Batch of 4 targets.
Target 1
Amino acid sequence: MTRRRKSYSAINSNPDDAQLKEELDNATPAGKADIHGVASQETKNRDVPSLIVAPNEKVVKKGNASIRFGKDRPADLYSGRGGKGNSHCAAVDIVAGHQGFLAADRGPRGKKLYVHPDFKMDAARIYVSQKSDIDDYLNINRKNLKGSTNSVFMKSTVALKADTVRIVARENIRLVTRTDDLNSQGGKLSNADKSGYGIDLIAMNDPEDLQPLVKGDSLVECLEAILEVIQSVGLILDNFMEYQNKFNRTVQNHTHMSPFYGTETAVDFKNLLLAGVEMAINSTLNCQVPMIKDLPFQSTAVVNDYLAGSGAPGEKYILSLYNRTN
């Protein structure tokens, strides 16, 4: 017989527990409300597992919501910094919905169900810890991430996890990093590499292709500078075409009259030669010289100001040195 999967709806109207199913089938509407639970009255906690509490913890609990005060502990009694016996690792764990859609007061065999903190299954959590490896607790892919926590570099943390997270401000929201010179562990925050103090926007827990965000004002200036270089090239080319066309017209329209029966003679050296000299001078001064002298300088200036990422990028560098996204 195939076991029915537990419902994901707000109320599980077909529970696995046979006794509870019989009560629901025979209950009046008011009785069903009492069994399921409504916020306006005390009800039976059919969907509330019992919490395993460590000796050094204090838990405030109502229904399937709790606030746990103690030491850093993401799972069983031996997990986290608290489980390893560390000092300076106080923690506050606020949870609504222990075990999420699998929550129940009793297990499959009718025995009372006891649970540890579960950063994967618990429905919604705010976790505050003095010292933790929060990236590991939340199963965050740390590849290519600077500033990540790990078993060596533990940090204080405030973490939020739920199906959806909303941060709302009637005025504005600021995400600010690196406000102090020391972290909570007393470690000095170096100026040598500031990328670890940035903000990463990561979708799908995939940091593989993280790239620096673009600074809009600098990008606009860069594009405007590139357009100016393109316009300069266009002007130089236009000058060259004008000089070339003038010379071409002279060559095309010149004639040579022979004193001998009007027959053709040699090239008109007087007009053609002068036009050729004029063409050479104009194209050199107004085309070749700007192309050789000015354009490389303009192009190099654009690269140095906006696009040079090696060494010490200037203030107008279009990519953020701190913030990345995929």
Target 2
Amino acid sequence: MAKKTEISVEEKLRALFDLQIIDSRIDEIRNVRGELPLEVEDLENEIAGMDEKLAKLTAELNDFDLGIKENKSIIESANDLIVKYADKLKNVRNNREYNSIVKEEEYQQLEIQLAEKKTKELKVQIEQKKETIVVLTEQLDMKKNHLSAKKGELDEIMQETAREETLLTAQSAAFEEKIDARLIIAYKRIRGSVKNGLAIVPIERGASGGSYFTIPPQVQMEIASRQKIITDEYSGRILVDSELAEEEHIKINKMIKGL
């Protein structure tokens, strides 16, 4: 690799700040897109859970229908037996035989009552399940419509930003090539240690950007002279004067619009 041409401190600061503007724009693109996939994933998981619940409710309905059919069969069998017992009573020969048939008849009557009670309970549960299914189906349709909208939004963002992100990433790599490896390492280290990814910031109202700690006038003058790289003692960020920052913002924003 060809050796980098030695450049002035001011040129290094400008190159670093340019790189920061580009990387910050890439961060913005990824942050906007980064929230939507999570929302889409959450909705997909929620819908899968609702589908599973709906399938379970439907299976329970089928079980209740089977239960009603079983109880109906029990009632029919019991009635058939009661008819047979009535015929037997016409031909009883003694009290013992009579009492035995009557007990069997009473038992079948109890079976009928129990089966009828169970049938009523099952019908109540069926109505409750059907109401739950109706509500859940409505909620599921709403969630699916919401998911479709979110997917459309994500696809739109992807189409709008994919090209810009690709081009900016290439520009970021190109700008890195222009900067001293030692500075790039420091820049990336600072970016990784701060929440907003800002490793190099301008002076704003006598303090480093995003900070409330005032920078002494003498240090501000040194920063404005652009003769050496100065870092904020509180945040560790590299500092530049506001005029340089404004100039580079105009330049890089114009470049980004031209991509």
Target 3
Amino acid sequence: MQKDKGFSLIELLIVVAIILIIAAIAIPNLLRARIAANESSAVSAVRTINTAEVTYSTSFPTTGYAGTLPNLGGATPCVPAIATGCLLDSVLSAGNKSGYTFAAVGANAVNGVNTTYTAGASPVTFNQSGVRNFCSNEDGVLRFDPGAAGSAPVTTTAACQAFTVLQ
């Protein structure tokens, strides 16, 4: 009598169980890595917004800091103007990038010149794209706060200064 070649059902079930155990260990680590990458990108984007705001206020001294985030960007080809500073790429100036929503608001107008601004970032989907909110204002200090589901980017100086300084 000839013996059949191949794997038994028990052997196949053991292999599938091992693969599922490995996947159960690896998937949470992958999600944490993606959250960390999104948060790192958000911090970098807030720093970029800070630089763009300073450049904008220098380029347009009669306006001061940009009134809104789209004022810092512009469509390609971009011509620098008060409404389109051409300082940010079109993705970031649209307000969404790498799982985060961004906002920047100029404030405290004195004779039509914005003397302060606040830039904020919050995760699009809390606990999937990120778990912390970030902000900065004209002092250039980055701050963070544990996020919450449904949170929006911080756009006031007082709210931003209540956050913890990012080390």
Target 4
Amino acid sequence: MGKGNILSLLILTLLIIIFPIVIKDTYLHTIGIFAGINALVAIGLTILMGYAGQISLGQAAFYGIGAYISAILSLHFGLPVILSIFLALLVASTAAIILAIPALRFKGHYLAVATLGFGEIIHIMLHEWGPGGPSGFGDIPKMNLFGFTFTSTNDYFYLVWICVVVIMIFSLNLINSMTGKALQAMHGSEIATQTAGINLTKLKIKVFILSSIYASLAGAMYAHYVTFLSPSSFSLFHSVFFLMMVIIGGISNIWGGIVGALIITILPEVLRGFKEFDILLYGLILTLFLLFMRKGLVPMTIATYKRWIHR
């Protein structure tokens, strides 16, 4: 992990600590919680797409699996929340393996369609067979860790963003390890990577599992925060929603996942004041990002900074 990443982590940690202290508005704390939950999914998607070169339009499926499995186990079977989350991650990992094995035969747009189909299958299953059906279900237990129940928004804000920091530390070390170099090599050329003696099948399965764990963890944290779930929260729209975070933040840099999650989560709230024009403005802003900032905010900011230092 380079000095730049260490400094960025320290700044992020400082901002996390002071935000609830300086900002007293509970509504803003709630937005911060959702931004952190979204960031967990976006970080995993950045590794999957930006570093490994594997396209996915089905992250909402893993998000939903984590949410529903953890909620059902804790509510209907009385398991401790932390155990329910752990089992939800195992189920999501298994689902990722089931998806990855046939999907390994596809590339590019075909892989995108395969993951999209997987996401729709999970959405239909939640809609038809999930507790409460399309109406959803509530009374999900609050997050409980070592006897402490996270009831206030302040407590949950710190919990979510501590998870984001831990995930970032792990992810930054991963992409700078030999496995990370192999992922980047696979993105560059699968043939050259295979020639170097790297098992592409295992590598692809591992990165699918990793991104599914991140997304299912986010889903479980979402479930135990809102305490109500319905299938509409895990549709194709949400997969596209996560994809936009990665694209706007910068798909080629893992920090882009956090920046994109913050922007996409906060932007609709900022535009609410425009009433019926908020959707139009939201679409216009996203279109401008895609037209003029295709590399994403983080890579463009880094490139601009390097040019400024050079001059």
